[in-house]
Amino acid sequence: MNHGATTPGPITVYxxxxxxxxxxPPISHxxxxxxxxxILHVGDRAWVLASLEASGAGSVSSPSIVESHWPGxxxxxxxxxxxxxQYSGMAEVGAGRYNGFDDWAEAFSVSxxxxxxxRADAALGAAQLLRHGVTGVADxxxxxxxxxxxxxxxxxxxxxxxxxxxxxxxxxxGGREQIISxxxxxxxxxxxxxxxxxxxxxxxxxLLEIPDIVRQRGKRLHLHLGESSFEGERVHxxxxxxxxHFVGVESFRALRAAGFGTSATExxxxxxxxxxxCHIAHGVYMxxxxxxxxxxxxxxxxxxxxxxxxxxxxxxxVAAYLRExxxxxxxxxxxxxxxxxxxxxxxxxxxxxxxxxxxxEGDLHERLLSAATLGGxxxxxxxxxxxxxxxxxxxxxxxxxxxDVAVGESVPDxxxxxxxxxxxxxxxxxxxxxxxxxxxxxxxxVGA
Length: 448
Prior knowledge:
The chain is built from 15 helices and 15 strands.
């Protein structure tokens, strides 16, 4: 007798007029069968129900299986690959428009310094993510009060403790040990990592050692890169960017002050920050060489176009990322720099930008929807293993999003509408097979 065996739980079949698995073709009148938080079957509704009945699990005419049907689109749960949920109480900053990073940072600092209930604000942000169909998030936390928001809300993803403003002397005199102890305070559920803020806000020594601290513990890295025009490559008067060396260079700012035009991306690459266990946010001010470095290191970039627009930055080079085959994800950033935490609104903006930048390929809808699901999961390394997410397949987590998008005779047209105008149209969010949020329009029904 196997005393460790557990009795399988009940089965729920989530059906929709269109199911988009992301890693397989779209399925008209499809279903996803779920048990114990994971996916049992994905496919045509009739086939899924027949397979369950053939296996002895039961049928929708019996109480052993519950079916929830939605006359719209079902996708994998969305993954927000860059956010700061604790800033959800700073929406007055994100509602403004600014003339660049420094102008925005001044407004941000005024609001931040007023004081906030960071835990409550983070919980507010998490609730908004759930309302918008997000099931996983890369959340950067600056104040310890907000450290457990993902665990508390039941969201998947990774909590990244932000590390910034460390100079070498302070780092060597207790800073390193402080960060190690703070990293240990991050809940292991759902995941933990460090976020060295940006190349210009840390000295070389901390930037060099933070990746080692993380990798020794099997955690992950996430940083802002290419968000400020200050980080872009500069050219000397003689037309060359010029070589640089570590000797005598204390920071990226010192490097620039010494007259070197090296980009921030090359700078952090030389320090060993980039890699497949690291993803970056923004990636706006990137040359083709910078983007090639990201690809070579297996580093994904989370694009946050609405945040960039609020701050007054250039749009990200999304068309170039797509043409070059760079791994991309989508992020909202925070309410301190974005009008909402609706990830599909950022997807729609990326679509507009890509077309404006000349990307004319017919795969744009598919690739952007993949970026908002599988791309975000891949950026955080949660697209593999027993608890993989970001797509709909047998064994993956049962993380699902439902959208109020009518499905007519043309499946491509329905997916196009979701990508181009999917903001505000999430109606239900399921995490580990459990409905975490549902709008009034959502109706759950039992049986066929």
